[in-house]
Amino acid sequence: MEYLIGQRWVSHADAQLGLGVVVDVEPRRITLSFPAVGEERTYAIDNAPLTRLRFKEGDHISTVEGLELIVTGVSEHQGLLMYAGTDHHEQEQHVSELELDAFVQLTTPQQRLLNGHFDRNEDFALRVATVQHTDRLQRSPARGLMGSRTSLLPHQLYIANEVGQRHAPRVLLADEVGLGKTIEAGMIIHQQLMTGRASRALVLVPPSLLHQWLVEMLRRFNLHFSLFDADRIAAMAEGDPEAGTEDDTAGNPFEAEQLVLCSLELFADDPALQQRALDADWDLVVVDEAHHLHWSEQSPGEDYRFVEQLSTRSAGLLLLTATPEQIGQDSHFARLRLLDPSRFHDLQAFREEEKQYRQLSAMADMLEQGDIPGDLPADLDRTQDAETLIEQLLDRHGTGRVLFRNTRAAVEGFPARHLHRYPLEQPDAYAHAQLELEYALHPELPYQDDSWLDFDPRVAWLEKTLKALRPQKVLVICGNASTAVALEHHLHLRAGIRSAAFYEGLSILERDRAAAYFADEAGGAQTLVCSEIGSEGRNFQFAHHLILFDLPLNPDLLEQRIGRLDRIGQQHDVEIHVPYLEGSAQETLLDWYDRGMDLFRDACSAGYMIFQTFRERLLPELAQRSAAFEQLLTDTAEFTLRTRKELREGRDRLLERNSCKREIAVGLIEEIALLEAGDDLERYLETLCDAFGVDQEFHSEQTLVLRPSEHMLTGHFPGVKDEGTTVTFSREKGLAREDIDFVTWEHPMIIESMDMVLSTELGNAALGTIKLKGVPAGTLLLEAIYTVNCVAPKYLQVERFLPLSPIRLLVDARGKELAELVPHERLNTLVERVKKSTALAIIKQVHEEVDAKMRLANAQAESRLRTVLESAEVQMRADLGAELERLEALRRVNPAIREAELEHLRHRIEECAVHIRHASLQLQALRLIITT
User: What residue intervals hold the motif DEAH box (predicted)?
Assistant: First the structure.
C-alpha cells in the first residue's frame, strides 16, 4: 500500500483518534497527524494499524468548514481521493479528502468492517439475538404485562390488558376488598408507560398509604415514583439540590419528575399548590380510595373539585375504590361523573338507567341457554351466535366500559372465615358507657390515662389469647389511636409480648417500620396493634388470626378490617376473634353483624346500604336492647339475603361478565408463561454480562449473582449494584424472595441493556472463517442483518404492526442467497475467529468484492421491505379499523364512548399509515466470512 502526504487514514488500533492525515513518509516509517485529539503518531510502514478511509456513494461526509454532503461519486487524482456530493440545497460540490473533518465516527457496519474495526463473533451473535428478542417482544400480545412481580391472576391481567391498551383510559376500578386494585392500577400504569401511551403520571392516595404505594410500585413494577410531601415542596421552592435541580425548582416542582406520588391532603387549603399541579400536564392521574372524595349535588367538597379540575386537564384518569355504590348511589354517580361528565351529567337519568341492568342480565342468561329474548335491543343482529350477541349486549348496553368490578364470589382462591365470640363480664367502671353511643362502643375513651387497662376484661383476655396463639402472627384492630397505643404499650412492656403499633400519629416511615417488624418471620413482632387506618390498603395475608378489639359502626369498615387478611394469596382460613362485654352495645352490634348480615362469614358489597336501611331501628337498640331486636335481626337477615341475590342476579353479574373475560385472560397467562419458559432469558443475560464484563456467579437454580468487574466495557451496567445484585428468573422465587430481583424480558436491566446494544456499534461488524465441504477455500460469504427503521411518535405504537422485523441475508460469491440453507444459529457454531493482523490483510484485498455483495444484499432487502410494509399497513388497518367500527357501533347506543376516542383512533390510523410507508431499512450488523 502506497502512502502519500495528504491522504486520510484511520487507526483500527485506536478509533478514538479520529481521522488522521499523512504528514511525513520515510522509507520505513510514516507519521500521521490526528487533529481531533491534537496528536501525531509514527508507525512502522510494514505493520501500521491503519486503514485508508474511502467513503462510498450514499455516505454522509463533513468538511472542516462545516459543509455536509451526500457522496454521489468518488475519483482519484495524484493519489488523493476526490469526492463529489450534494449539499442540503441539492447543489453539487467537489471536495478533496484533505478537506474532510477530522472528527469522524465510523459507526455503520460497512464503514467499520472496511476500516478494520471488528468485534468478536460472540458480540455479533449478541446483537442479532437482541434484534430478534426485541422484535418478538414488540409482537407479543402480553407486552407491558409480563414485567410485574405478581401472581398471574386472570381478573387482574384481563383488566390491566383491557384498560392499559386504551388511549387515555378513564375508568373506575372497583373490585371488592382483597382482589388487588393496587396491582391492577400498577399494571395499567406500567403498560401505559412501556407502550408510550403515557409518560407522566400523578398518583393521589391517603397519607397512610403513601409509602406502601411507593414501595409497591418499585418492588412489583420497577416504577420509581417520587414522593412529594410538604417538606419536599418547601425544599424545592428554596432550591435545595437534594430535592431537585436548580432548573426544576425555578419553575413548577411537579414538572421536575415524570412519576409523582402524593396525598390529596397536601393540597388542602393551598390554591397555589393546586394550580401548580394542574399546570403540570399529566398523561394519567390515579386516585386511590376515591370514595373519600366529598360530593353532593349542591356543594361538592374542595377535594372533589380539585380532582375534577385535574380530570379535565389529564387525558387519563383511574379511580380506585372497593365501595362504588355502598356509600350511596349519588356518591357513585359523582365518581362516574369525574370519568366522563358528558356521559354522566344528570343524576336522575342515572338513577333511571340503573334500573335496567337486571333486565340486561336476564337477557344474557337467556342467550346463554340458547333462547333469543323477544325484547333484544334492535341494534343487535339476531342471526349472530349467542356468544357474540352477549358480548355486544354487554358492550353496547352494559356498564363495563367505564366500570370494572370483580367480586369475591366470581374469583376463586379465597379462604373461609370463622367467627369466634368471647363474652366477657362488663365491669362496674364502665356503667357510664351507655350515656353516649361512642362510649357505648368504645368504653375506654373517656379515660384520660391508661387506668382502664387494669380493669377492662378485654385486655386480660387479649394477653392470654396472644400467648396461647404463639408463635402465630396476630393482627389486632381497634377504632381509636389512643386505644391502640395503650394496648401496644401494655403488651410490650407489661405482658412481654413482641408487638408493634400502627396508627395515624406515626410518620409514614415509622408505619412502614412497624409493618416490616410485624412481617419479619424470624425476629419480628407476634402482633401488630392497629387503629382504624390499619383497615385500609395494607395487606397482612401472611397472618390469619384477626382480633377485633371493638367493632366499627360502619359495616364497610368491618369488611375492610377483615379484608386485611382475607385476600387473594391467603393460605389459611381466616380466624376472626371478637371479645365483647356482655349486655353492652358491643354485643348488640356483634349480633346484628353476625346474625343479621352474616358479615363475618360472607363478604357483602352492599353493607353500608343495608346499614342505612336499618339505621333508625338499630341505633336505639344499641342504646338499650329491647324485645324488638329479634325482629330487627330477622328483617335484616331477610333483606340482606334479598340484596345479595339482587346483586348476584343484577348489576354485579353484568359487571362480572365484562370485568373478566376468562378466555382472554387465560391466553395472556399462556403467552407470559411461554416467554418465561426455558432458559432463553437466562442465557441472553449471561451473554450480555460476558460482553460488558459483568461477573456472574451461580446462586441457585434459575438464580445468579451479578457483580461489576474491573474490566467492564462501560462504567455502569443497568441494575447491577457495586456490592452485587442477585437476580432470579423464576416468578415463584421472585414472589417468595423480595430481597432478590425478579428479572423478566421487561425488567429495566434487560430493556436498558438491549438499548445499550442497539444504540452503540457493539457487534455490528465481525469477521470470521469457516470450513465448508465442497466450497473452495477463499470463498467470501457476507451475512447481513437488516431491521425496519420507522421513525414515529411512541404513542402511535407503530411497532405493534411494524416491529423491527429482522431480515437476514447470506450472500455468496455469485450473489446467491443462502440464509435458509445455513441458519444463523448454525453458522455461529461453525465460524472461527481470525487473528487481527490476518483479518486486516484480508480486508485490504476484498473492498470491491464486499461492496459488490452489499449492493446485491441491499437490493434483496429493499425488495423484501416492500412486502413487510404492505403487510404491516394491511394489518394495522384491519386491527384498528375493526376497533373503530366497534366503537362507532357502540357510540350509537352507548354514550359511554367518548368522541375523543373515536377521533384519536381515526387520526392514529392515518398517522400510522404515513409512518409505515416512510419506513426504511437499517443495516444492523455485517459479518464477512471466508471459507478455509
Answer: 288-291
Q: What is the CA radius of gyration of the chain?
A: 35
Q: With both helix axes pointing from N to C terminus, report the angle between 329-339 and 347-354 in degrees, rounded to the nearest 10.
A: 110
In CATH, the architecture of 678-745 is 2-Layer Sandwich (3.30)
On whether the CB atoms of residues 806 and 786 are closer than 8 A, the answer is yes
Phi, psi angle pair for 357, to nearest 5° = -65, -35
**Identity at 725, one-letter amino acid code:** T
* Mean pLDDT, residues 871-899: 81
Q: Is 180 in contact with 157 (CB distance < 8 Å)?
A: no
Q: Is 195 annotated as a binding residue?
A: no
Query: Nearest-CA neighbor of 203 among 114, 264, 274, 132?
Result: 264
Containing 869, the helix (H) or strand (E) segment is helix 847-893
pLDDT tens string 114-166: 878 888 999 999 999 999 999 999 989 999 999 999 989 999 999 999 998 88
**Do the annotations mark residue 181 as ligand-binding?**
yes
> Residue 773's pLDDT is what?
78
pLDDT at 413 over 80: no
Rounded average pLDDT over 601-606:
81
Residue 206: cis peptide before it, omega within 30 degrees of 0? no
SS3 content of the chain, % helix, strand, coil (to 5): 45, 20, 35
Domain boundaries, given as residue ranges, for the chain: 8-105, 154-343, 347-399, 417-590, 678-745, 765-931
179 labelled binding-site residue: yes
99 assigned ligand-binding residue: no
Q: Which residue has the cell 378513564?
A: 170
* Domain 154-343 indexed as CATH 3.90.180.10: no
Architecture of the domain delimited by 417-590: 3-Layer(aba) Sandwich (3.40)
> For residue range 511-554, what is the model confidence (pLDDT) as tens digits?
778 888 888 877 889 999 999 876 555 668 789 999 999 999 98
pLDDT at 246 over 70: no
C-alpha cell at 533: 387506618
**778 belongs to an annotated ligand binding site:** no
Q: Are 329 and 351 in contact (CB under 8 A)?
A: yes
Tell whether residue 74 is among the known ligand binding residues: no
Q: Which of 822, 810, 838 is nearest to 932 (CA)?
A: 838
Cell of 473: 402472627
Reported as a single tens digit per residue, the pLDDT across 325-355 is 545 677 788 888 888 876 777 788 777 777 7
Distances in Å between the Cα of 12 and the Cα atoms of 112, 118, 119, 369 are 9, 9, 11, 76
The rounded distance, in Å, linking the Cα atoms of 406 and 159 is 10
Asked whether residue 178 is marked as a ligand-binding residue, the answer is: yes
Contacts of 464 (CB under 8 A, 6+ apart): none
Amino acid in position 401: R
Q: What gap in Å lies between CA 67 and CA 817, rounded to an integer?
A: 39
Secondary structure of 240-278 in HEC code, one letter for each residue: CCCCCCHHHHHCCHHHCCCEEEEEHHHHCCCHHHHHHHH
**What confidence category does residue 645 fall into, taking pLDDT thresholds of 50, 70 and 90?**
confident
d(CA 266, CA 287): 14
pLDDT in tens, 547-577: 999 999 989 889 888 988 887 778 899 999 9
- Sheet holding 201-205: strands in order across? 226-227, 259-263, 201-205, 284-287, 316-320, 170-173, 403-404
Q: Do 417-590 and 678-745 fold alike per CATH?
A: no
Sequence-distant contacts of 435-442: CB under 8 A, at least 24 apart? 437/553, 437/585, 437/619, 437/622, 437/623, 440/584, 440/585, 440/586, 440/622, 440/623, 441/479, 441/550, 441/551, 441/553, 441/585, 441/586, 441/589, 441/622, 442/478, 442/479, 442/480, 442/483, 442/550
Better-predicted residue by pLDDT, 10 or 208: 10
**From the candidate CATH numbers 3.40.720.10, 2.30.30.140, 3.20.140.10, 3.30.1300.10, the one assigned to the domain spanning 8-105:** 2.30.30.140
* Residue the block writes with cell 370463622: 418
Is residue 152 annotated as involved in ligand binding?
A: no
